[in-house]
Structure formats: structure tokens, C-alpha cells
Amino acid sequence: MNQNILKSIVFNIIKNNPKSEKELFNLARIEAGKFKLPSPEKSSLLATYRKLLKTGVIKQNKLLEQLLTKRAVRTMSGVAVISVLTKPFPCPGKCIFCPTEKNMPKSYLSNEPAVMRAIINNFDPYRQVTMRLKALKNNGHATDKIELIIMGGTWSYHSPQYQKWFIKRCFDALNNYQAKTLTEAQKKNETAKHRCVGLTLETRPDYISNKEIKKMRELGCTRVELGIQHLDDKILKINRRGHSVKQSIKAIKLLKDAGFKINLHLMLNLYGSNVKRDFKMFQQLYSNGNFMPDMIKIYPCVVNEHAYLYKLYKQKKYKPYTEKQLEELIKKIKKITPPWVRITRLIRDIPEESIIAGNKKTNLRQLLQEQAKQEGWSCQCIRCREAGHQSKQMQKIKLNKIKYQANDGIEYFLSFESFDKKVLYAFLRLRFPSNPQKPSLKELKDAALIREVHTYGQLTNLGEKGNVQHLGLGKKLLAEAEKISQQYGYKKIAVIAGIGVRQYYQKNGYHLERTYMIKNLK
């Protein structure tokens, strides 16, 4: 569309000051219709708005910027997420439910959105990150706080050389600078335009050891997605998972005692399971101190032609749950989920055409939220309460503290919430480990651990004040965590900080010791 026409449309939108996406769309459609043209894309309007703003022709309009941001939900959690896929590579697992498509990373399909981006970029991490940064920026998202999620089978199965190269390439893309070493790339990212505030790696529980934890920390990893799938050894065995519940328990404890955030992958409707067993699994997950996750991904099992399960399905040995069975099960799970847990996913992002049998509803979370309103119940998980997803403006808030036993240690979930606890603005995870005198990494000896600090609300650029972000809530949570740690007799506290937030902790009295930000408590 002609630039002069786009300018005319933007001027008209600013003049009429729309308050909703519907009003914005109508204004753009009517103005474009005057030129006998279809309504322009949001990204074109945003690009024109930015040019006019840069030249000083118009003043900044934050509401309009928000309305012009495509899929604003992508940064509602306070960070911009970039998923990067590793190269096609074998996996140690032989799971019967796992797709094994030729020339694809294990468990991933060539028509999944993230995989398609990886294929276009020949699985090069630098090119994948660069492409996503450009897309996010063009669609109106702030990109100075980036959470990197590395996907593609079992990360720990790749060679150390490939791992270092891969992560360095990601940091080089964020820095727009070719570093000689990973250490140099990480140092550069501390002050880069696009800072990595969190790095997630996916692996299996049977690959977690003190040696693996050390490697992960050197790479800058702050969160681990752990595929434990089920809490019943019999079900794990007949699905050929290749690890035990005991190994899952050990892995979770080791990771938490090194300060990592844990995101557990759990599968409903596995071969040999049933609705009753699956619900019992979640009751155990939330009450048994051996588990107590920070985050979970729920993946209802689906039948795909690239998995061995397809053969069992054709032989009528495997039968997926009905839509109603699955929805009722997830509703029951959501109703018992504690307020310190975040349900990050309810389904796996597999295109409908690749699913032979099983759940095909891509908007399952939205449907359940609507049912919750109609039926008068609510989910207490972090994802359902975080401020960015709430329509209400910031209300009066108060500090809440939840203490619970987990993995032979003590956990505190400190949070700033609305008085009715329906809106979550910020939180901190504090851990007193199982054996502080004998940690897996010597810099953590006798240290209390801050495993996560997060402020919700629409992602706000560094240096700017937002509706929730950059208002000092994180600083207050840090002070409270330090105070509680002193009450328990700790003289130092360690944060598993992302590379890009080291400066924030330095401003709050912390110093870098190997890979952790550490503060000596008075």
C-alpha cells in the first residue's frame, strides 16, 4: 500500500483515538475504503506510526501501540519468548508415543510452526533467533527481554561441542555481534539491546547429574523442562520411556538444589493408563514432597502415523479419551493446581492434519476458561492469574507468603497479589536446599537460593515504567527473601540469574561468582 495512504489512515486513527481493536479495525477499514483498498495489516500501520513518531510528526500513543501489536498475548507474561530448534539427531528414548519423522529432531513434526521456521533456516540457531527477533519487532513487541527456549529431543544427548556452539550462536544473534567464545558472547549480552533473561533446555530425568548441572550452568541455563511423563513405573515401562519415577525424583531434587526452575512434562491418556490413574498422578504431583513442580506442561497423548502407538491404535489396543473425558479430567486437574504452579501448556502444538486420533482442539485452554466462568469455578495456577491476562487495571496489592516442603528442602512462594488473590503481579521462589553444606556446585555452599523472580504485565522496555513492570515490586520481593533467609540463619543468598539480568542484581548488592549472582547478608 502507498506510504501516503498509510499515513492518511494512521492520522485518521490518531484523530479518532480508538479504545479497542474493533474500533481500530473499523477506522482502518473505512479510511482504506475511501481509496478503494482493503484494510491494511497491523504491521504496516505500526511501521508507518513508528516512522511518524521518529520524525516528530506525531506524539507517542501507548494505547494505540498496544492495539497495533499483533498477538499481544505473546509478551503478556513480561518477556518475549523465542523458541529455537536443534538439528535432527537421535534420541536415547524409544517411547511408543513419540513421533519419529525422517530428518526431524525426535518428537517433532515438519509441519509444526517452530519446526517450519527451523527448516527454513537450515536449523542454524543464529538465523532462527534473528528471524524471530525481526518478526516480533515488526509486530509491535518489545524485544529487549528475551527468554530463549531450546527445543528438539534430548538436549543432553548432543555433544558438548555442539551445545556450546549452539548457545553461542543464539547469543551472537541477540547481540548482533560475532564473539570468539561463549564466555565473551555472554558478557556482551549483559548490556546488549536484546538481553537473554532466561534460558530453557529440554532433557530427560535419567540424564541429570552433578556433571550435567555444571555444564548447563556454564551455558547460562536457568530453567529445565523435564520429560517425566507419568508417575507410575508400570505405565512408563509399557510405553518404553526408559527411565523410572525414582530417577525423576532424584533429577528434580538435584536441579532445585542448584536453583533451577522446573517445568515438568506430563502426559494424559498414555497407553495403559486411564482417567482415574491420570487424576491420581496430579494429586500425587501436588502433595508428595518428592515432586512439587514450579511449572507443568500437560500433553494429552495423540496418535500420529510416525509413532509406534499408531500400530497399537490400528490393532484396537489403544483408545484415546473422548472429548468430554479429557475436558472433565483437565478441569479436575486445574481445580486442584496450587497457586505456585504455572500450567504453561494444555496441549502439544501438533497441527490437526497430523493427528490420527486424540485431542484436536487447539483452543482447549480458552474453552475451559469459558466453562469455568459459566460453572462458577476458577483455576489458581499462575498462568490464569498473571496480571497481563487480566482486564482490570492494577488494584491495591498485598504481599503473600506460602511455605511448603519440597524435595527435602523448604520452599517459599512470595507474591504480590490483589486482595482477593485473583490477580498476580509479581512473585519470587526462595529455596532452602536439602543439604546446604554439600551442594553440587561449591559456590552454593551454605547459600539460600532464589530460583525465580518474575513481574507480570505487558513487556515494557528497559528504562520505561509499565502498568506492573519496573515499579519496584521485584526489589521488594528480593528484600523479603533476604530477610527470611537471615531468619533461617543464612549468611548468603544466591540467584540463578539469566545472563541479561545480571546488571539488575548488581544494582541490588549482588556480585557474580562463577555463574550465580551472590549477596552476603549482614
Q: End-to-end span in angstroms?
A: 63 Å
Principal-axis shape equals: globular
Strands of the widest sheet, in order across it, are 1-2-3-4-5-6-7
* Low-pLDDT residue spans: none
Rg over alpha carbons? 24 Å
Strand percent estimate: 15-25%
Give a quick account of the main beta sheet: strands, pairing sense, barrel closure: 7 strands, parallel
| Global mean pLDDT | 91
Number of strand segments: 14
Task: Count the DSSP helices.
Answer: 18
Write the topology of this structure.
Elements: H1 3-16, H2 21-34, H3 42-54, H4 62-68, E1 80-85, H5 113-120, H6 125-138, E2 145-151, H7 160-175, H8 182-189, E3 195-203, H9 210-219, E4 223-229, H10 233-238, H11 245-256, E5 261-268, H12 275-287, E6 295-300, H13 309-314, H14 323-336, E7 342-345, H15 364-375, H16 382-385, E8 397-406, E9 409-418, E10 424-432, E11 447-455, H17 473-487, E12 492-495, H18 502-507, E13 511-513, E14 516-520
Parallel strand pairs: 1-2, 2-3, 3-4, 4-5, 5-6, 6-7, 11-12
Antiparallel strand pairs: 8-9, 9-10, 10-11, 12-14, 13-14
Helix pairs in contact: 1-2, 1-3, 6-7, 7-8, 12-14
